[in-house]
């Protein structure tokens, strides 16, 4: 069996943890499996490198930042290989060049295009554990790219797909995917299984267990993922196309406090106004989420939407600059909001989930500011200080019952 | 004019020094020159990485050590590129893969085989300052190799040769090559010029200004070097094939205290005994220097030679193990010795240098333990505590007069 195992930065933060990971990989190897390991940079080293870069050049030229950041994973994989060899197992580290992991050219946010398997396969055939740098690729200029934060998950899935691996295990500091954040909802349950689509909604909405792009890629290539803890031997959560749990309508409650609500008030009620607003934001790469359009006073339109808190100020700035062209009366921003979402593939065949959600929040005395739904998700915007109560209310309604 | 400039680790140890180097390179660039910069790892970072490796795996698997160490220069070049861009100059960093700097396969001690110039030339043609990682190469397996300590000098010379550069400047923390160590001989003079051969003798004998292999390579490809300070704008020393200074017989006095004398006493006076001694040492990669063979008591032979202090214990061990096979009576080791050498291309056409050297040491009351000569060098072994006095005596005799 060929197993791809991915470990994040905290799992390789020091010597003790490196050896802990090495031993876990060697266990699988000694059972006769072929093992490919994907690693992130150690602990906070990526942050440290970014701080160095910002100190030298606040503009942070992206190509050079990627060149710099790539040293982080290269350090991890070299040390891991040394650790495994210290334990008597043949291991070899490979960076994105050596593999070769071909990506698009976009520095800081590259996507994989093609992964060569010759070198890895050759090392596997020689019964070596192969340790690959996560998070990085090379583009058509032979320059180093990075995939953006959490990109090592994507590296693992892409390698699993390219190598036709039998399993792809994502090791993290939690025991799997939970029905809600266990720190906030003490009776949150670990899910044995979850579908790709559910996981995608969870990831997008701030569950922070798996990098979003990695789930999309897993879905595209049918790579079955297991999310599990690097600290315990608990079973973890399997992420796959179809789960057996059709009976469970809602599989998770995701909470995202990193959100701000922007309202553009008093727009002329003419066609194309909404287009203008989102076109301006799109040009600045501001990602807009939950959108609501309503009729304001004097036959004007109000358009509200959410953005991440980091992008809120930039969004406000660009909208204020264009206030006249947009015919807006004024623009408001409220960072004191949070998104709470219930997610479940079973929603597609179960009516009444939305009304149950609203009932739960009503009973908890929580005001709903905006609503957005997909086939497998219902999201409500609430005041940030109500978010944890809303999560708990939804959890009690859907998971506990 | 195409200039290759190499800066060592201390020259890029922190933000301030990085910008200092950046500005020096930009000065040349702004005069219309094409500039290629070779950098070592920042400050003590190579030592830090080696310590990490030794902590994880005391055996230090060489391939993985090179993979690890290579991150040091990659960090330097990325930060330098950011610094130059912060100063408004287009710059690009390249590692050994990107260049590509093809080397032999020997990890930790690789030699360059071939350097591709397409990528660098392309960047130069676009009027970019190109910043290349020193010290590292890639071998035929696409694995990262390193050239051994001080290898960045070699990278600079190899690049200058491959690119047919008009100048190759090695920046260091001294102002050039001196007639003796200025810390020991206060009236040591900076040499405006020195030949490759003289420089080679100086480097081998512990002058520590230029990496030996870089001088050999410069001689082979006729790359004219300039050794100069990264801290001042003083002129530096030119290293070339033939200098104009035929009149000056001795160009430098080199002192090497990192030496130990080993004596193998009472060997049978039969053919092949010397071969056996040095064959045993050669197999263990122990480098032997000044050799002396003399007749001992009872028609036996004594063989003495010097090794570096680091290798002395290993040499003693292997000789003791083979004492019987060597027919040796006993083996002695004395670490309390030093080599003092006078070096000058002019010696070849000037008789009497040796006798003047012995005269100088005699006048200073210094006992000579062993003597070794080449065409352009006379080396004497003296007690270590006499070394500085011997250096000064030779300097007074040859340089001051």
UniProtKB/TrEMBL annotation, chains A, B:
Substrate binds at residues 46, 73. It catalyses: L-aspartate + ATP = 4-phospho-L-aspartate + ADP. Its EC number is 2.7.2.4. ATP binds at residues 6-9, 172-173, 183. GO terms for cellular component: cytosol. Residues 262-345 form the ACT domain. Keywords: Amino-acid biosynthesis, ATP-binding, Diaminopimelate biosynthesis, Kinase, Lysine biosynthesis, Nucleotide-binding, Repeat, Transferase. GO terms for molecular function: aspartate kinase activity; ATP binding. This is Aspartokinase. It comes from Eubacterium oxidoreducens.
């Amino acid at each position: 069996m060929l197993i791809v195992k991915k470990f994040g930065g905290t799992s390789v933060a020091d010597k003790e943890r490196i050896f802990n990971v090495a031993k876990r990989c060697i266990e699988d190897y000694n059972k006769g499996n072929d093992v490919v390991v994907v690693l992130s940079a150690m602990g906070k080293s990526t942050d440290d490198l970014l701080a160095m870069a910002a100190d030298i050049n606040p503009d942070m030229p992206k190509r050079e930042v990627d060149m710099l950041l790539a040293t982080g994973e290269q350090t991890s994989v070299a040390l891991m290989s040394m650790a495994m060899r210290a334990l008597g197992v043949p291991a070899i580290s490979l960076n994105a060049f050596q593999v070769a992991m071909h990506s698009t050219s976009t520095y800081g946010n590259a996507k994989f295009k093609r992964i060569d398997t010759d070198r890895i396969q050759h090392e596997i055939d020689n019964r070596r554990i192969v340790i690959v740098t996560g998070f990085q690729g090379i583009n058509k200029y032979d320059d180093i790219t990075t995939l953006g934060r959490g990109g090592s998950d994507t590296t693992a899935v892409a390698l699993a797909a390219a190598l036709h691996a039998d399993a792809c295990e994502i090791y993290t500091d939690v025991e799997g995917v939970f029905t809600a954040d266990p720190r906030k909802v003490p009776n949150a349950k670990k899910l044995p299984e979850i579908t790709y689509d559910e996981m995608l909604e969870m990831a997008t909405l701030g569950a922070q267990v798996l990098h979003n792009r990695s789930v999309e890629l897993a879905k595209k290539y049918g790579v079955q993922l297991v999310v599990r803890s690097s600290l315990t031997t608990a079973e973890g959560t399997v992420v796959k196309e179809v789960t057996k749990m059709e009976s469970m309508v809602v599989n998770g409650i995701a909470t995202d406090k990193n959100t701000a609500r922007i309202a553009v008030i008093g727009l002329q009620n003419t066609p194309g106004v909404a287009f203008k607003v989102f076109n301006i934001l799109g040009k600045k790469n501001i990602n807009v989420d939950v959108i609501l359009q309503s009729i304001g006073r004097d036959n004007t339109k109000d358009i509200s939407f959410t953005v991440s808190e980091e992008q809120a100020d930039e969004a406000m700035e660009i909208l204020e600059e264009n206030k006249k062209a947009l015919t807006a009366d004024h623009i408001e921003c409220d960072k004191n909001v949070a998104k709470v979402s219930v997610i479940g593939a079973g929603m597609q065949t179960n009516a009444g989930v939305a009304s149950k959600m609203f009932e739960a929040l009503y009973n908890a005395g929580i005001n709903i500011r905006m609503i957005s739904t997909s086939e497998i998700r219902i999201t409500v915007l609430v005041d940030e200080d109500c978010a944890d109560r809303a999560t708990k209310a939804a959890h009690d309604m859907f998971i506990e019952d």
